[in-house]
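Summary for the lay section of the report: proteins are chains of building blocks that fold into shapes. Here we show the chain for FAD dependent oxidoreductase and then a coded description of the shape we predicted for it.
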Amino acid sequence: MNVLVVGSGAAGGTVARELSKNGISVTIIEKGPAIKVKNAYKEYIIQNVGTEISNTVCLGGTTLVTLGNGMKDCADDFKEFGIDLNPEFEEIERELFVSHLPDSHFGDGTKRIMESAESIGFEVEKMPKFIDPTSCKPCGKCALGCPQDAKWTSMTFIEEAEKYGARIIENTPVTDIIVSEGKVRGVKSYEEIFEADIVILAAGAIETPRLLQKIGMNAGNNLFVDTFVTVGGILENIKFNTELQMNAIIKFDNFIIGPHFTEVLVNDLNAHNARKKDVIGLMVMIKDEPSGKVTPDEIIKLNTGNDLAKLAQGSAIASSILIEAGVDPKTIVSTHARGAHLGGTASIGDLVNKNLQTEVEGLYVGDASIFPKAPGAPPVLTIIALAKRLAKHVMEMSL
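The coded shape description reads as follows.
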């Protein structure tokens, strides 16, 4: 059996590793280049589509710029479709050593935020992380590409897959899927053809539906992005910008709040002559409505009235925490709305079945396109769990 994996992020890297280590011939085709993890920020693509969205196009994908957050999202949502991810979550937590970081990795800003939130009456939890504390020297650069390679990225799995014989092809955009008599036969990159018995799309919630559209499938609807803003202000010399970000979390029904620094805040605080080391912030991330759409030529994702209400509620709570922490209320600002976790554009029960197969035999989708709704929280562990489950299905098919 010959398997082609399109994309090399959390889904692509995982499924390639699982299949190759079990003796299946795997080829990973990646649109972007292979880079050093610490240079991932150079591969960001930022688009304003109503909400600002961003991703990195390179080998390893957006895993290179995650904050290392290990949450088990949407488990109940997938159970409604007959998918129990608990066995895969247990595997992942062991393999990635998902755990809370030691107190030495909590900076003064994060500690102050946690104490202030608890004093107001909110329940604060430490964020589970897939970061090696023995390698991590907190520097605030997780979202740019870890200089110490201290956090898990899919590069770990890709390198392992390569040792098991997987072929890695970079700088090669897939432009079409080859289908004949209801069965997938491979993919094309412009005029170059790559034949395969099975194709697994893991190119993300924008490129995956566009490829499905080319073979006549009604993909690209119901885009969500886990819309977020960062609310922040000035707390002199707190040096929050050098801390490990999102090291704590406050959970609400429709959003989460966590410590978060962004240089956008520094720019927004220009009138106060803000320095990076004086700025502290809280991210408010909502479960946004799947109101977006991906077409062959366009991406549209506007905030709905409900989305704005959630952001306003979360921002008010974040502001109260920051004021309790000592931030001058006159300096508090909010960034514009941004999107972090794109998904929903080829959702389960719509375009894929419980085995993540499309109506085309041998054509599967493994990325966040298949999520039935927005997680409103970091989805990396769930994507890996789904990819592990998909790999098990493919291996059963090969017997």
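Put simply, here is one thing we learned. The longest strand covers residues 227-234.
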